[in-house]
Amino acid sequence: MALLITDECINCDVCEPECPNQAISMGAEIYEINPNKCTECVGHFDEPQCVQVCPVSCIPLDPAHLESQDSLWAKYRRLQSAAPASESEAPQDPP
């Protein structure tokens, strides 16, 4: 699943720089997560970093974008293959 920032967001700016996929950006009023780029940090970290740093706990799973662990790994691999070589990291094998 992708994650979703709810309207409880206080625009504190801590989540955006933590996203390894650059899926978080400022929307019209609050930060938004691009579900096409969000892997819940699969391939990068054990837990979603935006959720870890959010001071108001406003980043739940997005029920409109249900994905399996395998789908998240496939998205991670696709995003990494599209990233410039200098930004690319060696992919980790799924657990």
Task: Write a concise synopsis of the structure shown.
The protein is an alpha+beta fold.
3D structure, described in words:
- With 95 residues, the chain is an alpha+beta fold.
- It has a single domain (16-82), classed as Alpha-Beta Plaits.
- It has helices at 49-53, 69-82; strands spanning 24-26, 31-33.
- It has a two-stranded antiparallel ribbon.
- The protein is globular.
- It starts with 23 loop residues before the first strand and ends in a 13-residue tail after the last helix.
- The mean pLDDT is 90.
Task: Itemize the secondary structure elements and their pairings.
Elements: E1 24-26, E2 31-33, H1 49-53, H2 69-82
* CATH structural architecture: 2-Layer Sandwich
What is the number of E strands? 2
With strands numbered from the N-terminus, the spatial order across the biggest sheet is 1-2
Shape verdict: globular
* Residue windows where pLDDT falls under 50 for at least 5 positions: none
At CATH level 3, the topology is Alpha-Beta Plaits
What are the defining features of this structure?
95 residues; alpha+beta; Alpha-Beta Plaits; 2 strands; 6% strand
